[in-house]
Every structure is written in C-alpha cells, then in structure tokens.
Amino acid sequence: MYIVQIASECAPVIKAGGLGDVVYGLSRELEQKGHCVELILPKYDCMRYDHIWGLHDAYRDLWVPWFDGKIHCSVYCGWVHGRVCFFIEPHSDDQYFNRGSYYGCNDDNMRFAFFSKAALEFLLQSNKRPDVIHCHDWQTGLVPVMLFEIYKYHGMANQRVLYSIHNFKHQGFGGAEVLEAVQLRRPEYYFSYDKLRDNFNPFSINFMKGGIVYANAVNTVSPHHAWEARYTQISYGLGHTLEQHQDKFSGILNGLDYDFWNPESDRYIPYPYTADTFEQKLYNKKALRERLLLQDEEKPIVCFVGRLDDQKGVHLVHHSIYYSLQRGAQFVLLGSATESSIHNWFAHEKSFLNENPDCHIELGFNEELSHLIYAGADMIVVPSNYEPCGLTQVISLKYGTVPIVRGVGGLINTVFDYDYDQYHLPEERNGFVFFETDPNALESALGRAFDLWGSDRKAFQQLAIQGMKQDYSWNHPAEEYVQLYDRIRHK
Ligand code: ADP
Fold this sequence. Notes:
This protein is α/β, with parallel strands linked by helices. It is built from 17 helices and 17 strands.
C-alpha cells in the first residue's frame, strides 16, 4: 500500500510531544511491513536539521492557491532516520514557518490551513496518488474537507483519508476568511451544523470537526480514550459529532519505537540492561544520582517526565514531590511548561528545594536526561487529568520503572494495578492505578508502591520485570492501522 502521512510533527526532527513520536514510529513500522510511506511536513526554521539526511530541493515550483492569488513554495526532500520526508517552504511575507517555534502564534489556524492546502497541491501537482492519506490532529483537519470538496474533482478521486486525533483539546477555529483563503467558496454551505460549524460557536468553523465529518475513518490513540471521547466531556464539545459518525470512529493504542526506547541499546544510558539483567538498572540509578547531585542512600527514586500542563495533573505532580519526600523517597522532575504561571510555580519549588539532597527539579526539554531518568528511577507518576494514550508510562514499563497512574485514557489500557486489577492475572500486572483527582487518591496508589518497595523488594522488582516483558511496540498497532487503511480503501 502507498501511504502519505500529512502532519505538523515527526520525531526527532520536529517534536513537541507524543504526536511526533507516533508519526515517526508508525511510519517506520509500516515500512517494515512492506508498505511505501512518505511524509509531508512544514519546513520550520527551528526544526532539528541535524536529524535530516540528504536534504535537497525536490519540487521548486509549487504554486499554492491562496485567497485570490497563489503563493510560491519550494518542496525539499530528505531522510529522517530512513523515512522519506517532504518539507514545504512557502515564500511569502507571512513567513508561516519561520517563527522560531512550531505552535503558539496568533495565526496558527491560517498557518496550518495553508500547510494542509499546500500538502494537497503538492500531491496533485507532483502526480502522487497514495492509496491512503493519513493526517493528524487539528492542524490537518481541513485535508479531508478539501480533498473531497475540491481535489477529488481534479484527479484525486481514489484517495482515502484516515484522520487521527491525538488531543481533542486543540481543535483549530477560524472564520469565513479561512474558508476563503483555502478556496472553499460557499461559506453558508460549510457553516452548516453538519459540516464545519463549531458545535457551540455559530460564527466559527472547527478544523477538527471538519476532519471528523469528511474523513473516511477517524481514530483516537487508545480504545479507552475513544470511549471517553464519545461519552464524557473530554472531547471538548465534539461528543455529538462523534456520536453521529460513530460507525467510522475507533481507538488504536499507540505503539512505542523500541529501537529508540530500549534499555538494552540506549546510547544515552551508561549501563545497558534487560529484564534478565535487571540488577544493572541499579548502576543507572547511581549514575542518575551522580548527575543530579542526589545523595546515594537506600531510597526509591520517583520521577515525573512530561509537559507541565493542566492536562498532566500538575497539582498532583506537585503533591507527589512532597508526599515522596515525606515518605523518605527521592524525587526527580523533568518538565517544561508553556504557561508562565505553571512555570513560575515549579521554578519557585525548584529554588525552594534546591539544597534538598533528595530532590531535583529540571525545567526544560532534555531528551538525553529523560532517558537516564527512565533508566535510573524506580517509579514514575503519571497523574493526568486526561491522557489520550500517554507514552511516558509505556517508556517506563520498558525501562523497568513502575508506573503509578491515574486510570484515564490510554493509561488504563496499559497499566494494570498490582492489587486490584480484575481483568489481568497477577503475572500480567505492572503498576498502580488510582482514579480520583484528589491528593488522597494519589497517596493511596503511590503509598502502596512505597509499601511494596519497602516490605518486599523482590516482589517490587518482579512487578517491574513483568512490565519490561510486555510488548507495547508498534508491531500490533501498525497491523491495526493497516486493517483500517484496507477497510477504507475498499469502501
Ligand atoms: P504528550 O504528547 O501529551 O506531551 P506523551 O506522554 O504522549 O505526552 O509523550 C511525551 C513524550 O515527550 C515522551 O517521549 C516524553 O519522554 C517526552 N517529553 C515530555 N516532556 C519532556 C521533557 N521536558 N524533556 C524530555 N522529554 C520530554
């Protein structure tokens, strides 16, 4: 099968979060299964050019219709760790992708509406006719809309679209000017409730809703989150739309790229180990302590790695620091916040705890350090408010670091409680789960982890080893994606 992924991220060259990991990991696995995969991405000024091999101009004269005129673009081609990627560079005063950051601009809706249009124009003009176009999140929600309203009539009638939603919170909004820009000419038609009109704001179109309405199939990134999206508030107003399109909506759990995330071959950790040589993990714990100047005592290390954002349950992250210290454990936090109030809060904690030999707070994004933390810590807390899939808990499982998670979204599809899980055998359990959002709930689960660590170290290690042996690679999820591609292809 010939698959083209259109996305705003692809790790490691463009990564703001899990989306980048998924786009890369899935593409890689699909190729290993014998499919042809190409990626179309924006050519941001701030992406990691050191991860692109052989970047060259592939298509110089791409003219993209935009409002009443056309914008000239160049398309570059390069290899990102073996994946063929096309990067679109518009030449216009708007400098859409030369902003020093991937997201966060006032005209993000215009930037990504343009990107979606340009990606389709590139396919059209370069005569690429994939079997399936797989696009991701709000940034590319207009791709299926334009494909079936415009490009279908220009020689792209056989293409099918899978639309994957990684986070319902960001949906992409705009007024009639967006429709005008991408040449979806009849505003009254697109502003109808069963098309693009936002479910709550009649004066706005909703990119993500457009993706759901027009795509041949829609999925989110775990089965449980697919359920939550339909039946709880977590789809941020799109529940009714999903209900209307339930026949084409499903959940597929993300995989993890075990070539990159593997304690046996991880170049960022000093002592490689496997489930059979678990005792080597202890040396990484020592290395982590040395690096972060923590005292070397018989204590468990609890960690948190992730964005410091409301979604991640920051109040419980904060609480887990002090609860861990109170219980005689050590705590390591690696996180970055985009919201200044959250950043300042944790910066304050950092200075307050600066001299504490049992705690280290690192604010910022640091890939290399994250690997050492996964390898060196005994436990990780993931107390998210909501979590479409979550990668940090699956990475931790692979590194023998026991996850303590809130039972939402993909967390509940991957972590099974040591004491209380009703659906898995004791030898399949791998962590601790709590459900409520209050500190007591967190304490009850983290407390049980501390109790086990303190009273029966062998059982704790066994739990960690069970997690390491579980398979959360891309192998199985990629198979599910292939089946879904196949299903829409033959519709
Ligand atoms: P989300 O996509 O919501 O940010 P995920 O758990 O799906 O969360 O993916 C997070 C990914 O980003 C993981 O690979 C994690 O290791 C990485 N990550 C998050 N924050 C940091 C950070 N501050 N430094 C290094 N890596 C980080």
